[in-house]
Amino acid sequence: MSFELIKKVNDAQKKAGALVDIKSGDKVRVYQKIKEGNKERVQMFEGVVIRADRKQSHTARITVRKIASGVGVEKSFLLHSPLIEKIEVVRSSKVRRNYLSYMRERSGKSARLKAVDTRKARVTEEVAEPATETKAEPETKTETEAK
To answer: Which of 66, 76, 132, 145 could join 47 in a cystine, given CB atoms 3.0 to 4.6 angstroms apart?
Structure first.
């Protein structure tokens, strides 16, 4: 009984909207609310996701790394936090690990990841449409046979 109560509280903490599917190797822009005194503003942090933890949980977290003025900066973000305004995936890359800790030692050209073209899904949808035209052809054959 207590497990059901804990699950209900955890589900209440999750954001209502669907989250973007974020994987390690993605280049993302994270918009975060920052409070400075009485004012509140939105700050953007753009970098490569080197770790994505517990995607299904209310404690889902990503670690984003970027190079700022020649110094590596890493920041962890809770995906269901009310301080996170939105997350945009800029580019996806092909990686074979979930935790890209080896990126910390790399700089320059060796730190590049091979980009994956995300437009392939749209192309397969467009190819599926002409299949409906082939269904129309047998109907015309039956009409000509009837004549």
So the answer is: 66
